[in-house]
Fold:
Amino acid sequence: MPAKILVVDDEKSIREILTIVLENQGYNVIPLSDGVEAIERFKTENFDLAIVDINLPSIGGIEVLRRIKQLNSDTEVVMVSGYASLDTAVESVRAGAYDYIIKPFNIQTITDVVKRGIEKTLQAIEARKQITSLQEKNRELGLLYELRDVIGYRLDYNEVMDLIMSSLHTILDYHTSAFLFITEEEQIELSIWTGLESPEIVNQVESNLLDAFNSIYEKHVSRDKLTSHLIHAEYLKSDKIQYPQNIRSFLNIPLVTKDDEKNRLIGIVSICSHNDNAFDQSTSKLFHSVANNIISDTLEKQKRMLTEEKNTLEIMVSSMTDGVIMLDRKKHISLLNISAKRMLGLNMDGTIREKNIIKNVSESRFAKSIISIFDRNANDYQCIETDFEEEIYVDQTKMFLSANVSPIKSDDNKIYGIVAVLRDITRRKEIEEAKTNFISTVSHELRTPLTAIKNAVSIIEMSELIDEKLQRFIPIALRNIDRLEKLVNEILAFSKLEDGKMDMSFSIVDLKALSHDIIYNLGELALQKFIKIDEKIPADLPKAYADPDKLEQVLTNIIDNAIKFTPENGKIIVEAKLSKNGSNNNFSDYIEVSVSDTGIGISPEDQQRIFDRFERATLYNKGVGLGLAIAKKIIDNHNGKIWVESELGSGSKFIFTIPRAT
Structure:
């Protein structure tokens, strides 16, 4: 007599496909579209298997599953859904589902699941009278099997192992569990789940698993090569029982998978107890089955997923015009696209995995300066994102590359390597150089006639050759000549800074005295607008190590801007203090200088560009936008930083750092 299958799905096409496929397999198929009708049929008929859609119109599929299990617990139910989620998968298997299949499904998959499901139904009917104390364990073990496909494809590694370990505790009695595994980079990592979080327990587990691992692994692993992660498991915690601090029973199961028909060790999973002789033969057999049928399969699925994702990523990255290089923790190249090979002068036919980054780069035409930057970032696994530009030679041709180097981090801030994105900026550099040369040439050509005009106007001013009506135009002419002369000087100064030709003369600088002199010199301008300038620099502030003339230029420019763009009766504050190192609250080797005002403020969009040359804030209609660009170049030459904090309409605060004298 053929097995009888009930198909419940509100999609007609799904019902028809399943009916045709399963009837061709020799099954008797009853297709229904309504969950209520399915429950009524179960009240009067026996079915060997049911296939139920989770999303049914009249009554939910999971509720149908529950009612079916209440009516006939022996009948296996396969849940199908087009909107898969871990929650529905877990809810389904907990409600008694045999399997959980995601639409669109593979015909072979559905027939295999149906075959296994019916076999299980028949076995359950045949063996029901013989099942006693093992019934609960088998049901929970079935839960692990049913979750296997969903676990392997829906969670990250930590979530997978957390779920498996918590489920494992429902069928086995233990106090601590652990998993030692070999990563793709051949790193040895150990995760420990415990409710006690005792250093003694961690030490015992590490020693035991490392000894067990070294007894079967082809390479000896020392303790310092082991990376351990302690995970607090609330389900393992018990306030009622006082366990001894030492573990007295270990049950270690090697995890083995087949690789080219050969067994390959991928790790060891362990359960531990504070009781003597805690694990009998039946527990060992059950744990071995779970370990090598659930955990190994899950890890292999995840490995295949990662390989597929990596292949997809490589295809995408290969088509990018930017160069991309990814390095792992050992500084091996894990990804190198065609554009990067071209930029670095590497062999286009070379592999991307076989060489150490230093060897690969040193055998190419990559400049030594870039080697050092790559090497520094590869070693500094806490490095922040950084940008740099370098000049290199490929086939004796000069090129300029810009690079953005960032660490590759996991969600828990663990560093796995670095990624560098390279961009060929040779053409941009050529245009910038031509522009700079043009500006420099024009500026030099303007200085001579400007000087002649200024001298001529000054002579006319001192003479008595013009009447009083014309005399009043002389100061206007001189003022505009000075303005034009200042502009030319700014352009020349910026040109020298960009070319690296501006001389820097460093010495010890008293910031309080320097600020006092600058405020005094600008006092007349501030007085005209009734603006008060307060200098709040501590007398005991350490001296700075800087170029005093260049530093005066920076401060003068910032304070002068503050006066220009602060309304009458406003206020300006000049402050300085020792800078601090990030979150550790220690003083650094830099001094932080700030100038705050009650002016018109700067919009967030303008804040991103006001330090670029020839850029001004939208509301700033004076000057040509070189003052702050020059200030930034000067501060850069001091190995400092400059930035602005501002809100439109609420004033601005310009801040820069310079080295302190030692």
About this structure: The chain has a mean pLDDT of 79.
